[in-house]
Amino acid sequence: MIKLKHILKEVMEENSIQNIVDRVYPQIVKDLGGQMKPVEVHDNIYERLGAVAVEDLMKQNNPDAQFDPEDDKIYIYSSKMRTVEDVIRSLLHEHTHTLQDQKEFSQLYADGALYDNHPFEQAAKKAEENWEKYV
User: Fold this and answer.
1) Each residue's pLDDT tens digit, 64-91
2) Cα(10)–Cα(6) distance, rounded to whole angstroms?
3) Higher-confidence position of 121 and 4
4) Are the beta carbons of 62 and 77 closer than 8 angstroms?
5) How far apart are CA 48 and CA 79, in angstroms?
6) How many angstroms separate the CA atoms of 125 and 116, rounded?
7) Which residues of 105-118 are buried (b: 16+ CB within 10 A; e: fewer)?
8) Which domains are delineated in the chain?
9) Non-local CB neighbours of 17 within 8 Å, separated by 6+ positions
């Protein structure tokens, strides 16, 4: 069997990402708890939202993935996925956010927390460390 973590491309194709999601996400939910959320793969957040001047926006801030509590979905952005590791880390990170209190999450940002010191982001980053378990 080929070790998937060693597959490296400039950008992974959406169907390859979806195959990884289908294989890995159920086990992540089983291990971390909570409920499976729909996972959608899009090229980037700006095209998903129908923004104009996408190339300029992507240069400023183009996330790897996101959990949108209003949609109750996880979005994976293929333009940022280069390896299987990237996909698995994104799933672990975003699923961790699905387990967190979203009002408190937002309030911490409103109170001045930044991404690097936000306790919920730190917990999500910590969850990513176990990515090799899912290869």
Assistant:
1) 899 999 999 999 999 899 999 999 999 9
2) 13
3) 121
4) yes
5) 12
6) 10
7) beebeeeebeeeeb
8) 4-134 (3.30.2010)
9) 41, 76, 78, 81, 87
